[in-house]
Amino acid sequence: MKVSQVLQENWQNEVASFSFEYFVPKTQQNLYDRMDRMKEWQPLFVDVTWNAGGASRQMVTSTTDMITKASKGFGLETCMHLTCTGMSQEDVDAALSKAFNGGCRCILALRGDAPVENEKWEATSNGFMYARDLVKYIRQKYGDHFEIGVAGYPEGHPEQHDQDVLIEHLKEKLDAGASFVITQMFYDVDNFLQWVDKCREKGITQPIIPGIMPITNYASFIRRVKWCEINVPPEFMSALETIMEKGHIYHLHFYTMNVEKSTRVILDKLELVRK
Ligand SMILES: Cc1cc2nc3c(=O)[nH]c(=O)nc-3n(C[C@H](O)[C@H](O)[C@H](O)COP(=O)(O)OP(=O)(O)OC[C@H]3O[C@@H](n4cnc5c(N)ncnc54)[C@H](O)[C@@H]3O)c2cc1C
């Protein structure tokens, strides 16, 4: 299955789907049990983030192990995040080769942030400068084996506040061979929908997936709306409904933060999981 193809078909047929993002935890067994339960909800794919600050060799092993477990162990369609930060071309080769052998067919190609907060990002020697360059490299090395996704920023990026320039950079990544976009999380739905329109005006035709962070993880929200640990505030639900009704968006990507409850509450309220 090509993720972008299913997304396009779902879009045309107005069928809703969703995906789950996980990160590599210190101990994996709890998460594996949770993934086993969450796979029953039938996500289109699951993805595993890349800890750009981590030691590259260790990251290659821990991330690809988790990808292999999700892919071969649970039979899930998987997408591995891969960053340029701290990665030489050899490290990237090792990660891609292990992902390939682990059954992975999709990479979210990212530049990553600087390992130390607020420091200027610098390319690794014999590494890659922009996500666009990583996309090109994966295409060159693996042809069409991997589908490639890239990151989009409806609310801007800390290093580039000019939205038009950012969209140009997004288009460069897609023109280099990526086939879908996952956005940074956001809560301003109108802004997101305007941004999607702008991307379309600039010739971006590929599926754009909104990244959803269930707000139970935000201390300020939790304080303000105590019940949200087991439920979702109405503003958030109506925001999601607006995205799906007016925005012609039919896929939601959940930043699960490795927990299941809040994601399940949202999916239940949107009636997206078969009981
Ligand atoms: C959905 C999603 C998932 C993510 N997952 C991870 C993860 O797993 N691990 C992690 O460490 N980080 C992750 N990130 C964060 C991401 O790595 C950072 O936001 C990073 O700062 C930018 O990555 P990028 O791939 O968008 O970079 P790029 O698209 O390469 O852009 C980086 C900066 O360079 C500029 N730029 C791009 N092309 C050019 C050009 N041709 N000329 C001049 N400037 C240019 C852009 O405007 C931007 O300011 C994720 C972000 C998103 C939205």
Automatic annotation (TrEMBL):
Alphabetical UniProt keywords: FAD, Flavoprotein, Oxidoreductase
Pfam families tied to this protein: MTHFR
Pathway where this protein functions: One-carbon metabolism; tetrahydrofolate interconversion
Swiss-Prot/TrEMBL cofactor(s): FAD
Signal peptide segment: none
Domain of life: Eukaryota
SUPFAM superfamilies according to UniProt: FAD-linked oxidoreductase
Protease among keywords: no
NCBIfam families referenced in this protein's UniProt entry, alphabetically: fadh2_euk
Family, as annotated: Belongs to the methylenetetrahydrofolate reductase family.
This protein's name: Methylenetetrahydrofolate reductase 2
Organism listed in the record: Myxozyma melibiosi
